[in-house]
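Translate structure to sequence.
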C-alpha cells in the first residue's frame, strides 16, 4: 500500500502546513528559474500539479489516492472529471508531461545524426518550466472556480 495524501480538514494543522509548503514551493520555483535550475523547478511544478489532481480526485468522490505518477493521475482524473474546461487543461498537462519526459530523460542522450547543443537543451527545460507553471496556475484557478461555483 502506497502513501496517502494528507486531507485538509478544518481544525487540523494540515491546511496551514499545506499553505506553508505551497508558498515555499513557489518561492523555490522562482529561485530555480532565476538561477537556471530548470529541472528542479519542473520537478516541483509536477509535484504541485499532482497534488492539485489528487485533491480534485478526492473532491469528485474518488478514494484518497496513493501517491501516483502524473501519468496515472491524469488517467484517473479523466475517468471522473465532467467539467470540460478542466478536461481541456488536463489534456494540456498531459502534453506538457510528455514534453517534460523528453527534455529531462534525454538531457545527455544523443540521437544519431542530430546534434543538440547543451545550451539548447537547457533552453528547452527553461521553456518546459515556464509552460508547466502556467498550466499549474490555470489548473489551480479552474479548480478553485469550480469549487466556489458548486458551493
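Result:
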Amino acid at each position: 500500500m502506497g502513501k496517502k495524501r494528507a486531507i485538509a480538514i478544518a481544525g487540523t494543522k494540515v491546511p496551514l502546513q499545506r499553505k506553508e509548503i505551497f508558498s515555499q514551493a513557489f518561492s523555490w520555483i522562482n529561485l530555480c528559474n532565476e538561477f537556471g535550475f530548470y529541472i528542479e523547478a519542473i520537478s516541483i511544478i509536477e509535484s504541485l500539479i499532482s497534488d492539485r489532481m489528487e485533491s480534485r480526485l478526492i473532491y469528485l468522490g474518488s478514494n484518497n489516492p496513493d501517491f501516483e505518477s502524473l501519468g496515472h493521475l491524469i488517467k484517473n482524473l479523466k475517468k471522473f472529471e465532467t467539467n470540460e474546461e478542466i478536461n481541456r487543461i488536463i489534456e494540456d498537462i498531459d502534453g506538457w508531461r510528455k514534453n517534460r519526459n523528453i527534455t529531462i530523460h534525454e538531457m545527455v542522450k544523443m540521437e544519431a545524426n542530430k546534434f543538440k547543443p547543451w545550451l539548447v537543451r537547457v533552453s528547452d527545460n527553461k521553456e518546459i518550466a515556464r509552460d508547466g507553471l502556467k498550466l499549474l496556475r490555470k489548473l489551480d484557478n479552474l479548480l478553485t472556480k469550480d469549487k466556489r461555483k458548486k458551493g
